Amino acid sequence: MSEPTEPSPIRRPALRWALAALILVIAAAVALWPRTDSGTTNPGTPAARQPAAVSAEERAAAGLAPCPASTGPGAGPLAGITLTCLADGAPVDLAAALAGKPALLNLWAYWCGPCAVELPHLQEFARRAGPELTVLTVHSDPDESKALARLSGLGITLPGVEDPAASVRTAAGAPAVLPVSVLVRADGTIASVEVRTFADVADIADTVAEKLGVRIAV
């Protein structure tokens, strides 16, 4: 039998390099392994910035009209959606608040230029419509504070709700653009989704008359 032989001096450096490379591979794998604990984020993904909470003073300063109160059980595609009222921060069961009366929901955001042009027309239309139908703004961005500031700057006092998750847009099947107006029948069904900017008060009145059968003198 032959005696066991030691690795030759020529092979020892190669073994050391191979071992070092293996250690580096293991260390890299550990560093990149997905984390599931709640205190971490995925590598390369910045932490989401949460908008600051809105104070009661900010809400009062905006001077918005109160959100419509629930008038019955909600029905239709908007049933089950609860949003925050911009005027006071209270929860709003959307379908229940709209029940029994036709409604125009205007989806907008503080950064949307065409929305700023359209909102004054909607406010004037709502003034002329009175109790015939509900006109409600739906802010489709998480920054509620900027929504209040924008409405205040435009002189808009329409009732409005905060919809950071775009729940209304999803329920109505609307595209991810702004502004969008959703026309809702008194029974909660959706009559029309208007993916455009209304030109003026007469344009809104004509559309409401055609889609909802509610005629408002302008």
Automatic annotation (TrEMBL):
<dbReference type="InterPro" id="IPR013766">
    <property type="entry name" value="Thioredoxin_domain"/>
</dbReference>
<dbReference type="GO" id="GO:0030313">
    <property type="term" value="C:cell envelope"/>
</dbReference>
<dbReference type="InterPro" id="IPR050553">
    <property type="entry name" value="Thioredoxin_ResA/DsbE_sf"/>
</dbReference>
<dbReference type="InterPro" id="IPR017937">
    <property type="entry name" value="Thioredoxin_CS"/>
</dbReference>
<dbReference type="InterPro" id="IPR013740">
    <property type="entry name" value="Redoxin"/>
</dbReference>
<dbReference type="InterPro" id="IPR036249">
    <property type="entry name" value="Thioredoxin-like_sf"/>
</dbReference>
<keyword id="KW-1015">Disulfide bond</keyword>
<keyword id="KW-0812">Transmembrane</keyword>
<keyword id="KW-1133">Transmembrane helix</keyword>
<protein>
    <submittedName>
        <fullName>Thiol-disulfide isomerase/thioredoxin</fullName>
    </submittedName>
</protein>
<dbReference type="GO" id="GO:0017004">
    <property type="term" value="P:cytochrome complex assembly"/>
</dbReference>
<feature type="transmembrane region" description="Helical">
    <location>
        <begin position="14"/>
        <end position="33"/>
    </location>
</feature>
<dbReference type="GO" id="GO:0016491">
    <property type="term" value="F:oxidoreductase activity"/>
</dbReference>
<keyword id="KW-0676">Redox-active center</keyword>
<feature type="domain" description="Thioredoxin">
    <location>
        <begin position="72"/>
        <end position="213"/>
    </location>
</feature>
<dbReference type="Pfam" id="PF08534">
    <property type="entry name" value="Redoxin"/>
</dbReference>
<keyword id="KW-0201">Cytochrome c-type biogenesis</keyword>
<keyword id="KW-0472">Membrane</keyword>
<dbReference type="GO" id="GO:0016853">
    <property type="term" value="F:isomerase activity"/>
</dbReference>
<keyword id="KW-0413">Isomerase</keyword>
<keyword id="KW-0735">Signal-anchor</keyword>
